[in-house]
Amino acid sequence: MLPLADGPAPPLRADAQRNRERVLCAAARVIEHSGAAGLTMEAVAEEAGVGKGTVFRRFGDRSSLLHALLDEEERRLQDAVIAGPPPLGPGAPPLERLIAFGDARLDHLVRHGELLAAAELGPGSTAGDQHPVAVAARVHVAYLLRLAGHSPDCASVMSSALLTFLSGAQVHHLLADEGHDPATLRVTWHRLAAGAVADAAQQVA
Amino acid sequence: MLPLADGPAPPLRADAQRNRERVLCAAARVIEHSGAAGLTMEAVAEEAGVGKGTVFRRFGDRSSLLHALLDEEERRLQDAVIAGPPPLGPGAPPLERLIAFGDARLDHLVRHGELLAAAELGPGSTAGDQHPVAVAARVHVAYLLRLAGHSPDCASVMSSALLTFLSGAQVHHLLADEGHDPATLRVTWHRLAAGAVADAAQQVA
DNA sequence: CAGCGAACCGGACCATGGTCCGGTTCGTGG
DNA sequence: CCACGAACCGGACCATGGTCCGGTTCGCTG
To answer: Residue A84: phi, psi to the nearest 5?
Structure first.
């Protein structure tokens, strides 16, 4: 996961901060009431009692708003990866960390599948692949793959390849549309991960 | 690839057929002039000299229109897979067919990356995973994986997993945004495929 | 407390994908 | 050649994500 290089993040003005909370709560309320699919920026704005412009100013786009709702939990996963106990955190062999990472993310996705799918899909999304969280995940997995013996280049591509399997849209699709169950997904992830790492080993040998 | 079960596909009325062509040509012209990103349904309609409703009636949505533009080539790949010479067609061992399939698709994607990315991304796309071509690919890969020894269930999930790597959006992202080159992608595909198949072997053993 | 610039707010506005339905055209049976 | 229903056409209409900018509010400073 690593840096993220957040920059100074200047504190918001009091009213801005207040509105931010209001919007977030409103969004949660709207979702609870209409599902993630029914979350309209305008609806959120109205529910929050602010203008649409305010919602966009604060969150940039729909996708980010959705992510913001899950922010806390995602941050926790990130922390666990950076500094938590093995096998998620440092200390375990790469493959185990990789598997643990995928499992954790799958858990997260199963819990919040609808939200995350919506976050990555929505109109105008030039690709959910640019969000800080996604970038961090890519960097982390690539790092593990390098530890496992891949060249930087391969690690990078392989990382992206592996992570598409863990994308919100993908998992949601597999669960909802194709009717697979989480356990199967987990097994598949273990195989993908093992395959990727075995690859490196054989490459080194 | 297999059936597709197209149904009878009733022939279009003469005027409808004529308009279909007109729209397709217009779309090609628009793309040539503004790039795939600039292809708006309205622009196509105007360029074709028909109403917007006509475009939608014929193609259903933006994504399908894009796919229709590439239809011929995609159909050719499909034929090659079903009945062509090995290693793409029947006759070679599963792994080789899998690799050949991926290579062919990567080729296709590299050639028409922009188009396909646009086809899969566009707003309102509940998921490009429902298009006949995508479904056919999934069925085909799952079939190969079963041949290689996977259980039907695993084959299905693994198939989806592998194919996300070959999606238009994904490949375009890797090429354009992350600056990888096609050769690296191909190597990565070989590894993924080999990993998946090796998995099955070890599972059987 | 008064003044002031930066930051913020709201909601009108735009672009675009997608829907709808009244009027038109096709082509078939008599 | 005519009549008629099905299929089709067009473009007005809708929903929604996203942009813009004039007016307002904040909070710091003297």
So the answer is: -75, -175
CB contact under 8 Å between A127 and B169, yes or no, is yes
The helix/strand/coil state of A98 is: helix
Mean pLDDT computed over every residue of chain A: 87
What number is the average pLDDT over the span B40-66? 94
Confirm or reject contact between A161 and chain B (CB < 8 A): yes
Q: Which nucleotide, over all strands, has the C1' atom closest to the CA of B63? A: C17
Query: Tell me, what's the pLDDT at A204?
Result: 54
B124 touches strand C (CB under 7 A): yes
Residues B124, B97 contacting (CB under 8 angstroms): no
One-letter amino acid of B131: H
Q: How far apart are CA B81 and CA A121, in angstroms?
A: 31
Say yes or no: Cβ of A124 under 7 A from any atom of strand C: no
Q: Is the pLDDT of residue A50 over 70?
A: yes
Cα separation, A30 vs A36, whole angstroms? 8
Per the structure block, which two tokens stand in for B82? Answer: 């079903």
Q: How many CB atoms lie within 10 A of CB B118?
A: 22
User: By CB neighbour count within 10 A (0-12 exposed, 13-18 middle, 19+ buried), where does A5 fall?
Assistant: exposed
Write the residue in A158, A170, A191 that is nearest to B164 by C-beta.
A170
CA distance A52 to A125: 19
Distance in angstroms (rounded) separating the CA atoms of residues A202 and B88 = 26
Q: Residue B10: its pLDDT value, please? A: 72
Per-residue model confidence (pLDDT) at position A11: 80
